[in-house]
Amino acid sequence: MSESYRALCTDFYVNQKLTVRMELPRSRDTVLDFCERIRRQFPEMKAFRKYKDELALESSQAEMPHRWMALRSNSVRSGVVNPPTPEEAYSLHASILESAPTYMSISPLDVDYVELLYGFDLAANGNHDAIVLDALIPGSPLAALLDIPNTTPIDCQPMIGLSLGKRGDTEVYFEVKTRATSGMGPRESEGPDPISVYLTLRRFGSLSDTKELPGVLAKLAKLGEELVESRVVPGLIVPIREAISSGNQ
Question: Residues 26-71: pLDDT tens digits?
């Protein structure tokens, strides 16, 4: 899975977020014990940093796959950048879901939702919005709406959300994120800023037991991989990649 995705994009990553309704404990011992638990399983994650709104544990930016975890007042987030295999992509997330309830005092009633995000960055010069418009709009009813002389696309970032099933406890979002190409972005020394394609899956609702959390992740991962293969790659990534390669923007 992952290696084939790397052939289609500049960077590929899988992020997770566990959101709770009540604030997580912030005591020094609690946070450090939890981070130490994760570090023992992933020794390369040894950089502990404090930011304005979060505490982060991560591996070196130069190390691939790059792993990170961030604690905020109502969420535990994690990510794996350029994982070589599906197992590498999910192992950190599963470990966090297994450990967080114990170390961070999360009860089944406290769980708001679990989120799994697949991100694809495609480096692109030129007008990102024009590239996305050229890749996705021609042939659709929107094409006629936008056929106005002497105009320049300045915002084309489609996002579509779907609620799955009769229960409606799982949501799926398809999103394209463009960026300005002024050369002032964080990737200036590495090349052009990317156009990002996101598939986000969220499972809402309280659980009977926090031990169900890894199973929730597994179900989201199965659905996510199916949607990436059948919808995201052919419907978003390939057309945008072809538009970038054409160099008409």
Answer: 899 999 999 999 999 999 999 999 988 899 999 988 788 999 999 9
Phi, psi of 160 (to 5 degrees): -130, 130
Helix, strand, coil content of the chain in percent (nearest 5): 35, 30, 35
The position carrying tokens 């009813």 is 141
pLDDT-derived band at 183, boundaries 50, 70, 90: very low
Where residue 8 sits, what CATH number does that domain have?
3.30.160.110
- Domain enclosing residue 196, as ranges: 2-246
- Residue in the structure block whose two tokens are 């160099």: 247
Taking residue 175's Cβ as centre, other Cβ atoms within 10 Å add up to: 17
Query: How far apart are alpha carbons 195 and 177 in whole angstroms?
Result: 6
How far is it, in rounded angstroms, from Cα 178 to Cα 23? 33
CA-based nearest residue to 15, from 57, 60, 64, 76:
76
**Residue 7: Cβ within 10 Å count:** 7
